[in-house]
Give the backbone structure.
Amino acid sequence: MPNKSILKKLTIFLALIISSALAWGDQKKTSAPPPKPAPATSRPSTQPQPRQQQPVNPPRRQPPVPVTQPNKGQRPGPPPGVIWDKGGEPNRGPKPPDSNQGRISYRSRPGDQAKVLPGGGTEFHNANGQTVTTNARGEVQRIEVPRGLAGTNKMVINHGPRGGRVVETGRPGARVVSYGPNRGFVERPLRPGYISRTYVAGGRSYAHVYREYRYHNMAYYRYVPGVYYNRRFYAWAVTPWGTPVHYVWFGMATPAPWFGYYRGYFIPYPVYASPDLWLTDYLLAENLRLAYENEQAAYMGQTPPPPPNQDPTAPTLSPEVKAAIAAEVKQQLADEQAAAANPPDVNSQAAPSNEQVPEALSPTERVFVVASSLDLTALGGGPECSLSPGDVLMRLSDTPDANQNVNASVQSSKKGDCTTGQTVAVSVQDLQEMHNHFREQLDSGLNVLTENRAKGLPNGPTADPRQVAEGTAEPAPGAESQLAAQDNDAAKLEAQVKQN
């Protein structure tokens, strides 16, 4: 029979095992996971629930708040109410024009020979044989390539005060000058002592004739009218009408881009007392219209610079300056009337004599309307400044210096150009080109009056137009393609200057 002490120990061991098992089962019941939440359609449980789960239909996610202070290199978000356009920019309507549109910069490179110019600009002669002139901001104003490096002719590229590009190749008397693709003129010899310029603009071509002569060993050109009118018509053009006439210009009757662009600079007369006052506004309007179109062509569809003046109620071109231009119109009409009475014989004047004083230096020729963009030097140590078509100069000195420059005062200018009242040095050749352009626009206005195309003005007497053989020429064939090719070559040259 087993020992009683051993049986007692076995009984105690079995009791411990049974009690441990019972305790483990109670612990498992108390630590069971909580019941799953009831479906949305079931009645909510009244039992207290542990932490609530994510709702079945959560609210729509709100968009993040735009970052107002982005990290470095991160594009800021648009202001409230502004959305991004397809180009990744805030769509705020028309983008403000870039005043440096069309400009390129140039930095000195190894091997360059640099010369600092008055006004802070620099002239570089680089290893490619090119001469690059920059202004004080490092923007290229002029690129010159001598003959042999740019094809067969010398090429000069000038950037105007607002970035517009003018390209010239050749030499005086045989040049190609472009303001953009399919816009400019082709110059060629016509007969001994005469040249013709075939102008291309607006898809059409026309030719003007110029007589060549020399002054102080430099070539000058004088515009030759292609038509003269009878004496009675010229007299009518400067005779006051009985009653002032109200005339609605096309730029005011129907919106014209050029008119709105220059509205803060030029406003036509409200009424006209005589034909010469209408002609004054006509040549100013035509000059500004062509300048606007040339600038558009130079930017090749890109955004042009901002309008030169913003306040249309106070135009910069004052009544006093317009009166001076009107007096110039009368003087030119008198000169043309005198020439019509004794027209030159093209055969008897085949070889013009030397040392003829340019019309731009005539004592009666003082006021000039700028016809092309010019970079000028201000007198008295002032900085360089620029003039653009439609600005007005008054010549102060009569005798040119060694560089064929004379002093002139700026009578009227657009915003950003040389300041009104500033005295500048301007070349006699540039003044002569302004004079020629003035005569051309005046003849264009006379042609409008003779054909009664200025609706609303009194009709004048029969003009009896007579063709002038000396001033007649046919447009040069292929002028448009020459301008396009030259402009393409200029674009390649600018790319080379910018990349080298």
About this structure: The first strand starts at residue 113 and ends at 116. The chain has a mean pLDDT of 77.
